[in-house]
Design brief:
The chain has 469 residues and is an alpha+beta fold. Helix content is 22%, strand content 23%. The protein contains eleven helices and 19 strands. A hairpin with a 1-residue loop joins strand 6 and strand 7. Helix 3 packs antiparallel against helix 8 and helix 6 crosses helix 9. The longest helix has 15 residues.
C-alpha cells in the first residue's frame, strides 16, 4: 500500500499531552521528534456556521456538541458519524452551514514475486522442461477482530484507556449509523496495533467512531509499519470499499506509520485545556472569566454527577439547543444512544440551575489522564447568563480534582478557524492542538460503479456514494 500524505499533515504528540501516554502508546514519533502542537478535529460535513465572536458581554453562551469527529460522513439511511467534524459543534444563535471536507485515497499493496516459491528470491522452482514461470502472490497477514467480550480487557492490558477506543462508546456510536463495532488488532513480536472502527453496510465501508480514533500502537515495538498492508488485506476480505478516519488529536496518530495507507489532511485544530495549572480561571480569557463570575454571582446552583443513572433531563435541554440551531434530524439522537452512553461509557454530568430550573448542562467522558467534552445543551433562558461557561469551567475543576490532566474541548465547526474555535480557545489560550482526517479507497472499480463517476472526487463529499443530509 503506497503512502499518501498531504503536505499539511502534522506529525507528533501535542505538547499538552501527558508524557506517560506518550511513552506507552507509540502511534507516532517520540515527543522530541514532533511539532509542539497537534491538530485535533473531526471531519466531514458540518452543520453550523458561526459568526465572529462578539466582544465582552456579547459573547454567546456556547455548548459544543462534542462528539467531534464522527459526523464526518452520512449514511444512506442515517447520517454517518464519520462525516461531521466536531460532531455537532453547536454554536447557539448561529445559522447552520453545511460544509464539506475533502478526503483521500489509499492504494492496495500486493507483493508479487517472480520465481517459484512464496519466498521467491529469483529462484526458479519450475520443474525442468515445463518452460513456465510461476508467479506467487504474497498476501500480507490481515488484522484480526478482537472478540467483543475481550475488547476492553485487551485494551487495558495494552494500557490504552481513552474512551474513544472503548467497547461501550464504539458500540453506542454504531447504533447511530447501522454499523458493526469492531476492534482490530495486529500483533508483532514486541507490541500491538489496535484500531477501533465501525463497519457500515450496503455498501460495506469503514469509519472511525463518533469522535476520534485511528490506529494506535502499544508496547515496546508495535508493528506500525506493517499495519497498513494488514489493514488493506482485512478490508479486502471484508469487502470494504472505503475508509474514513478522524485521527485522535491527543494521541497524534495521524503521523504514525500505521496511518500511511490514508491520505491525510490537517484541520484548523482543537483545544486541549491543561488542568495542571495553579488557577484555571486566571489562565482563561478575561471575557470568559467575567461571564463565569457573573454566573457565580447570580447564585446559580451547580451539581456534578459522575456516572449519571439517566440522561432524560439532559437530553431535553440538549434537544432545545438543537431545535434552536435548526440542526439536522441526525442530531436528535434516539433513546437507545442515551441508554448506551449510560450503560457503557464513563460519564460525568454537570448541571447549572437557577432556582431548580435547568439552564445548562454538559457531558464529559473518559478516564485519566484525558477528559473529553462530549455534548452540551442550554435552555433558552441561559443566553447571556454565562451558565454554559460556568458548566464547562466546573467540569474542568472536577476533572482536575479527579486526576485528569487535560480537558479536550474540540475545535471549530467543520474543523475551521471560526468563532466556535475562538470560544474554546478562550478557556485555554495556549491549548490549540492539531488534528487530521484520513481517506482511503480499497476497491476503486466498486467505488466508481457506486458513484457513477469516471474518477474519485477527493475534494467533494466522501465517500461519494453516501448521501449528505
Amino acid at each position: 500500500m503506497a503512502e499518501l500524505v498531504d503536505s499539511d499533515v502534522l506529525i507528533g504528540f501535542p505538547a499538552q499531552v501527558t508524557p506517560t501516554i506518550r511513552t506507552r502508546l507509540t502511534g507516532c514519533a517520540s515527543a522530541t521528534q514532533q511539532a509542539p502542537h497537534r491538530a485535533h478535529h473531526l471531519v466531514g460535513e458540518l452543520l453550523l456556521a458561526a459568526g465572529p465572536v462578539p466582544p465582552d458581554d456579547a459573547v454567546p453562551d456556547v455548548v459544543v456538541e462534542q462528539a467531534e469527529g464522527y459526523l464526518v460522513e452520512r449514511g444512506l439511511k442515517r447520517a454517518d458519524l464519520g462525516q461531521h467534524v466536531d460532531a455537532v459543534a453547536i454554536l447557539f444563535d448561529h445559522p447552520l452551514d453545511p460544509a464539506r471536507l475533502a478526503l483521500d485515497a489509499l492504494e492496495a499493496r500486493e507483493q508479487l514475486r517472480l520465481g517459484g516459491g512464496v519466498g521467491g528470491h529469483g529462484r526458479d522452482d519450475t520443474p525442468e522442461g515445463l518452460g513456465a514461470t510461476s508467479i506467487a502472490v504474497v498476501t500480507p497477514a490481515a488484522c484480526v477482530e478482537v472478540e467483543p467480550e475481550r475488547w476492553d480487557e485487551a485494551l487495558r492490558a495494552a494500557a490504552i484507556t481513552d474512551v474513544y477506543y472503548s467497547r461501550g462508546f464504539v458500540g453506542a456510536s454504531a447504533a447511530l449509523v447501522d454499523a458493526d463495532p469492531l476492534l482490530l488488532r495486529l500483533d508483532g513480536e514486541a507490541g500491538t496495533v489496535f484500531f477501533a472502527c465501525l463497519l457500515r453496510r450496503e455498501p460495506f465501508d469503514v469509519v472511525t467512531p463518533y469522535g476520534y480514533g485511528g490506529p494506535v500502537g502499544a508496547g515496546e515495538r508495535p508493528p506500525l509499519a506493517e499495519f497498513p498492508a494488514a489493514y488493506e488485506t482485512w478490508c479486502k476480505r471484508r469487502g470494504a470499499t472505503t475508509s474514513f478516519a478522524v485521527f485522535h488529536p491527543l494521541l497524534g496518530n495521524a503521523g504514525s506509520p500505521a496511518a500511511a495507507g490514508f491520505r491525510r489532511r490537517s484541520l484548523a485544530g482543537t483545544v486541549a485545556w491543561s488542568l495542571t495549572g495553579p488557577d484555571l480561571l486566571a489562565a482563561m480569557h478575561r471575557h470568559h472569566r467575567r461571564l463565569i463570575r457573573r454566573a457565580q454571582n447570580a447564585g446559580y446552583e451547580v451539581a456534578i454527577e459522575p456516572a449519571p443513572a439517566a440522561l432524560d433531563e439532559f437530553a431535553g435541554v440538549y434537544e432545545q439547543s438543537m431545535q434552536r440551531a435548526r440542526a439536522s434530524p441526525f442530531y436528535f439522537f434516539p433513546q437507545g444512544y442515551w441508554d448506551a452512553l449510560v450503560d457503557g461509557v464513563r460519564l460525568v454530568r454537570v448541571d447549572v440551575r437557577a432556582q431548580g430550573r435547568l439552564l445548562a448542562s454538559v457531558l464529559g467522558m473518559g478516564s485519566p489522564p484525558w477528559l473529553h467534552y462530549h455534548l452540551g445543551g442550554a435552555a433558552d433562558a441561559a443566553r447571556g447568563t454565562g451558565a454554559s461557561h460556568l458548566a464547562l469551567y466546573r467540569l474542568a475543576c472536577w476533572g482536575r480534582e479527579q486526576g485528569f490532566e487535560t480537558l479536550h474541548l474540540g475545535g471549530g465547526v467543520g474543523g475551521r478557524e471560526d468563532s466556535l474555535l475562538e470560544f474554546k480557545l478562550r478557556f485555554a489560550p495556549q491549548g490549540r492542538v492539531p488534528v487530521s482526517i484520513g481517506k482511503a479507497v480499497h476497491d476503486l472499480p466498486a467505488y466508481l460503479r457506486l458513484t457513477g463517476g469516471a474518477a474519485v472526487d477527493w475534494d467533494g463529499f466522501f465517500p461519494g456514494y453516501r448521501e449528505p443530509y
